[in-house]
Amino acid sequence: MSEQQHRHKSGFETRAIHAGYEPDPMTGAVIPPIYATSTYKQDGVGGLRGGYEYSRTANPTRTALEGNLAALEEGERGFAFASGLAAEDTLVRTLCRPGDHVVLPNDAYGGTFRLFDKVEQAWGLVHDPAPASDLDAVRAAIRPGETKLVWVETPTNPLLGIGDIEALAGIAHEAGALLVVDNTFASPYLQQPLTLGADIVVHSTTKYCGGHSDVVGGALVVKDLEIAEQLAFHQNSIGAVAGPFDAWLVLRGLKTLAVRMDRHCDNAEQVVAFLEDHPQVTEVFYPGLESHPGHEIAARQMRRFGGIVSFRVAGGEQQALDVCGRAEVFTLGESLGGVESLIEHPGRMTHASVAGTELEVPADMVRLSVGIETADDLVADLDRALGGAGG
Ligand SMILES: *Cc1c(COP(=O)(O)O)cnc(C)c1O
What we know:
The protein folds into two domains: 3-255, 3-Layer(aba) Sandwich (Aspartate Aminotransferase, domain 2), CATH 3.40.640; 258-387, Aspartate Aminotransferase, domain 1, CATH 3.90.1150. Helix content is 38%, strand content 15%. The chain is built from 14 helices and twelve strands. Strands 1-7-6-5-4-2-3 form a seven-stranded mixed sheet, sandwiched between helices. It has a five-stranded mixed sheet with strand order 8-9-12-11-10. Helix 2 packs antiparallel against helix 3 and helix 11 (257-277) packs parallel to helix 14. The longest helix is centred in the last third of the chain and has 21 residues, at 257-277. Bound molecules: pyridoxal-5'-phosphate. Pyridoxal-5'-phosphate is lined by residues 83-85, 109, 111-112, 153, 157, 182, 184-185, 204, 206-207, 216, 218.
């Protein structure tokens, strides 16, 4: 089957393993080599083999990753960057001009907020916050004629809020704006925003796409070819590209995304069931719970509910810190989406920068990135950390 056929007709897992690359015709190499080259021999001036002239513009390993990401998100073109934030910055420089307005999630990933608030704003971009779960608030935050982008994350971090992508696309388009969805938490396996009306998907491939906590990377996927051309121009002009080794690591990660995500979800469900019954746990945040305010929308637009779980404890901040400190199978650390389980205290760690604002997260909250270890070991570890059996 040709690459094109894989891209358009095959199931997700088949695309994850095959899209973007055909075995090398010369050597038969099944996996794309790490093309550690900056430049390419030309057959006479301007005689490019396969279109490659300089690796900032294009590199075959990166091309394979970009084709794979486009296929997984059901977009037309993908672009791979040095980090999620590099992807975001390139997107903004491509689609916005000083004086334009952007609606941001009120609880955006901290690095995204900092990028807009400290870097893009100094360049002349204006932004207003709105919770993606509140359609009226998003509508009210839009400035007709000025708003270029409506930017959402779903699920959000660390409260796992859910935005209705289809409805948000309608609201953005009605106002002449584009809908950008940061799909990092769901990954393309659980949710494909472009098929729901979004215009651009953003990824920190550092998280589930890479999946092994061994690479920092970012990506954009679009369905409009004109926007794709503009992005290609800016990707090359700004130059914040993924290097060939990083691109290769993310591509390798994507091959197992489906099986990893299913296990992340299985394990998260077991952890949630345990936490829901635990006397020291006062509230569990997981979109798979029927009590979650975004559950119905999540069930409609996501395949499953993901690997991130947050919860609050009865003993206040000290107990939350103790749980983080006592866990052993869960490693205390920031980031998420790797095969290993991570635990963190958002108030003091990932979300320390919003302390004292309306976005401050509860001090008694713990966030888990549930990995793919043996579920019983994860539950036993949390039980111990919460002061249960053996604690
Ligand atoms: C990590 C993350 C980013 C930023 O990506 P980097 O690869 O760290 O630059 C953006 N959005 C979300 C939701 C993230 O989790």
